[in-house]
Structure to design on (334 residues):
């Protein structure tokens, strides 16, 4: 008897995760591809390609083929999916069934692009599931009940804010501000405030180590050394940066995320809004790891918010559970 392999993919702007039925998460690598300019040949994908970000000679480009949760470069994305499938399946890709997560409210064109990219990579059947739903399933929220649950999936390219009831999205909004925008804000802040030019990877590193959404005045301020290039002299320089300075840099993008959450809350039917006040807002996605982001959202919305365990793996777990139990999640699948 020949069993089709079932594969779940969370194709994120920052990271791509692959789930294999009965095995769990088998791959977690950055969504980065390095290719040569001359013949468009793919040289490296994932971890190896991320090492090259901002360090390549002119003839090689290391780029992220996903922009704001949407496929920006179709051929590269397709090649990348092929590579990840081969690596996860440890060999040739023999017509697996693939389920892949897409941003809530994606257009038909975007959906077709994802399906086509998977089919080109060798998938037999392709199922799509909206990210907020996948995140809710992964966070073990009983989505099929007639009660409101609010989920905020803070990813790399987009923040998905959704209210779910009866297994479907009732109100949702995709905010094109998330992890990468926070990195950019730090990058610009370092240049304006500290006259220091840093790269994307350094900015992300600063965010992970001392990024803080809500400063606690009593606690001692964390500080780190940052290496970069002096904006005026052009020479390398090391400075010490504290979390208050970085908190200042993060305010604008955090406000935009907050506006999205408030907008969804304002459009939520009153009965479901009452449920959300009782249950709180669930935060998932890698950017939910930002220090005090839950306190920040609670403070400005007045609704309790909490981060799930291992928020980075929430969406992929949901995709995995949905593909292993296709029948019970029929309503959620597109």
């Amino acid at each position: 008897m020949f069993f089709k392999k079932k594969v779940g993919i969370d194709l994120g702007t920052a990271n791509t995760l692959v789930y294999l039925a009965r095995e769990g998460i088998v791959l977690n690598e950055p969504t980065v591809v390095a290719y040569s300019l001359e013949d468009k040949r793919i040289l490296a994908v994932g971890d190896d390609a991320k090492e090259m970000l901002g360090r390549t000679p002119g003839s090689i480009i290391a780029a992220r083929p996903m922009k704001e949760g949407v496929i920006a470069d179709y051929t590269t994305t397709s090649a990348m999916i092929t590579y990840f499938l081969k690596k996860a399946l440890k060999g040739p890709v023999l017509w697996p069934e693939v389920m892949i997560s897409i941003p809530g409210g994606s257009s038909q064109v975007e959906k077709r692009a994802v399906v086509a990219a998977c089919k080109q990579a060798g998938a037999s059947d392709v199922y799509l599931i909206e990210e907020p739903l996948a995140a809710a399933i992964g966070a073990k929220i009983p989505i099929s009940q007639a009660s409101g649950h609010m989920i905020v999936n803070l990813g790399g390219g987009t923040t998905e804010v959704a209210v779910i009831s009866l297994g479907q999205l009732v109100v949702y909004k995709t905010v094109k501000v998330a992890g990468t925008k926070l990195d950019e804000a730090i990058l610009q802040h370092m240049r304006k405030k500290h006259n220091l030019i840093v790269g994307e990877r350094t900015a992300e590193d600063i965010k992970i180590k001392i990024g803080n959404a809500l400063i606690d005045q009593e606690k001692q301020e964390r500080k780190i050394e940052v290496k970069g290039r002096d904006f005026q002299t052009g020479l390398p320089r090391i400075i010490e940066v504290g979390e208050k300075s970085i908190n200042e840099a993060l305010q604008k993008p955090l406000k935009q995320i907050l506006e999205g959450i408030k907008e969804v809350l304002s459009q939520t039917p009153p009965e479901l809004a009452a449920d959300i006040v009782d249950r709180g807002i669930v935060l998932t996605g890698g950017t939910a790891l930002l220090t005090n982001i839950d306190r920040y959202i609670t403070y400005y919305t007045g609704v309790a918010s909490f981060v799930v365990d291992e928020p980075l793996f929430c969406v992929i777990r949901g995709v995995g559970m949905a593909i292993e139990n296709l029948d019970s999640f029929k309503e959620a699948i597109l």
Q: What stands out?
A: The domain at 148-177+251-311 is CATH 3.30.420.40 (Nucleotidyltransferase; domain 5). The first helix runs from residue 47 to 52. The chain has three domains: 6-31+68-134+314-332, 148-177+251-311, 179-249. Residues 70 and 154 are 15 Å apart (CA to CA).
